[in-house]
Amino acid sequence: MTEHDHDHDHDHDRTVAPMVDEITDFEVLEIALRELCIEKGIFSAEEHRLMTEFAEQIGPTPAAHLVAKAWLDPKFKELALAEPMTASKEVGVDWLHPTGWGTPSDFTAFQILADTPTVHNVIVCALCSCYPRPILGNSPEWYRTPNYRRRLVRWPRQVLAEFGLYLSDEITVHVQDSNQKHRFMVMPMRPEGTDDWTEDQLVEILTRDCLIGVALPKAGVTTNMITDTRPAIHPGNAG
Amino acid sequence: MSERIEALQEIVARDQVWSRMAAKWGVENPVPPWKTSLDGMCDALDNAACDADIPTFKERRDEEDELTATVYSDLPYPENQLVSLAHSLVARGVIDEAELKERLASIRKRLEA
């Protein structure tokens, strides 16, 4: 290599992010299941690609914008609570055709639960893991666990406290159970210290956890709680 | 449903879970790259309309809950989700275990070529 070879305009410090340069059994298993299902005609490669693209592009940002808009505009809040499907379209989510080509699940109803000074809402799916995916993205791991699903409906204050959310006895906790036909999200109250904030500033504190109801938005807090997921205990094996 | 499936037990024993692999290679992604493809596969299965004994959405999740709490309780998420799905499909006869073993070997050979 001569000195001349280095006389060009590129950044020697620029490197690609590290990657796992090894074939893992789980990667192989995922491909194997997919290929066998496609070969057996259970679903097509095209259907799988479209579903995967949906899974890759969803996240909590549309839901955060919806709540931020509602905080800034009382008329939009009215719309969000009365016609949540219409309000969702204003943040780019069409519940009937969330992917533009169809729906990945058969939910038919979506409702936004507004917190008040005396009522706090939190969502769960006691049966499985139904979640408002088109507007809130994929559910976190803990949301899927039997631990959260079983215990939230019985001991909501204790479970919320495990997320660091302690509510006074004057506040009623409303646990809303999702099901195959109904999806819900929480509209928390606007916190203090955000009076002159723009929509984008408000969006930053409207984390996924706030929209599930296991956290409250707070100026300066822009990340979700990292929850140490407990392993499920199968009732048949317990004690 | 809780009967052990040899091909999957071998995968569990090798323990190439994402947390371990990511740490080994210095990768910070919280989930493995195959996760969204698995999500797409679950959605595609939930929408499948064919004669095979495909679990419904509720059956799939119930079986996943049962298997992750028992046979695959040592695996973290989302590896336990993937292996439970494989277990359900084999236990229901949608995929034959010998066919799965053969395919695992041929895919690994292809990827390592």
Please give a structural write-up.
The complex is a heterodimer of chains A (239) and B (113). With 239 residues, chain A is α/β, with parallel strands linked by helices. Chain A has helices at 25-39, 45-57, 61-72, 74-82, 84-90, 133-136, 141-144, 146-154, 156-162, 199-205, 208-212; strands at 109-114, 119-124, 172-177, 182-187. In chain A, strands 1-4 form a two-stranded parallel ribbon. A two-stranded parallel sheet of chain A has the order 2-3. Mean pLDDT of chain A is 87; it is low at 1-9. Chains A and B meet through helix 1 and helix 2 of A and helix 1, helix 2, helix 3, helix 4 and helix 5 of B.
Q: What is the element layout, followed by pairings?
A:
The complex is a heterodimer of chains A (239) and B (113).
Chain A: H1 25-39, H2 45-57, H3 61-72, H4 74-82, H5 84-90, E1 109-114, E2 119-124, H6 133-136, H7 141-144, H8 146-154, H9 156-162, E3 172-177, E4 182-187, H10 199-205, H11 208-212
Parallel strand pairs in A: 1-4, 2-3
Chain B: H1 6-14, H2 18-25, H3 35-46, H4 57-69, H5 79-91, H6 97-112
Helix pairs in contact in B: 4-5
